[in-house]
Write a structure and sequence with these properties.
The chain has one domain (3-184): Maf protein (Alpha-Beta Complex). Helix content is 33%, strand content 26%. The protein has six helices and seven strands. The protein has helices at residues 10-17, 40-58, 84-94, 129-139, 166-170, 174-181, and strands at residues 3-5, 24-25, 63-73, 76-78, 98-108, 113-124, 158-163. Strands 1, 2, 3, 4, 5, 6 and 7 form a seven-stranded mixed sheet that branches. The longest helix is centred in the N-terminal third of the chain and has 19 residues, at 40-58. It starts with a strand and ends in a 7-residue tail after the last helix.
């Protein structure tokens, strides 16, 4: 069976490679809604499903995996900062606070369609301006919601983490995905 990751994300590619299965990456032709267009949980599901359906329409006999992620701190939905200055501003705002990452996951195949959201909570420790600038200079997390890479030096920014699946924090909840793929005989 053909397995397709509906994403161009290098982080999601690296995560899916852990399953040691052959797969392709296909860029979904789908225009994501931006923060504020819908409540956070609806938005992450909308974008996840939209990406998956766009690729599944092109490959209806394949198994298509899609994902999307939002970071929420209080009433603020965080996106990717895009540049170092915005990354520093995001981290300064998050210093000493909890951020909830909502990672949408969807699978589309001839046998099944499933969707879910896997939450993960990050508790930042109090960060100094120097720590923030140094971190951003070293890791350049401008393409990551929340302005950090937990799989790298970003782990040093936290007081503690809460959640059932640490891969959800990176952008693809592998525990949930492995449960869904088992009936398709992809992991046997």
């Amino acid at each position: 069976m053909q397995l397709i990751l509906a994403s161009t994300s290098p982080y999601r590619r690296q995560l899916l490679q852990r399953f040691q299965l052959p797969f392709e990456q296909v860029a979904p032709e789908f225009e994501e809604l931006k923060a504020g267009a819908l409540p956070a949980t609806e938005l992450v599901l909308h974008n996840t499903i939209g990406k998956g359906k766009a690729v599944f329409a092109l490959y209806p006999q394949a198994t298509v995996i899609a994902s999307d992620q939002l970071a929420v701190c209080g009433d603020i939905v965080l996106g990717k900062p895009g540049n170092a200055e915005e990354a520093c501003a995001q981290l300064a705002m998050l210093s000493g606070k909890m951020v909830t990452f909502l990672t949408g996951i969807a699978i589309f195949s001839p046998e099944q369609t499933r969707t879910d959201i896997v939450p993960f909570h990050v508790h930042f420790r109090k960060l100094s301006d120097t720590e923030i600038r140094t971190y951003v200079e070293k890791e350049n997390p401008v393409d990551c919601a929340g302005s950090f890479k937990s799989e790298g030096l970003g782990i040093c920014l936290f007081d503690h983490l809460e959640g059932d699946d640490p891969t959800a924090l990176i952008g693809l909840p592998l525990i949930r995905l492995s449960q869904w793929l088992q009936p398709l005989s992809l992991l046997k």
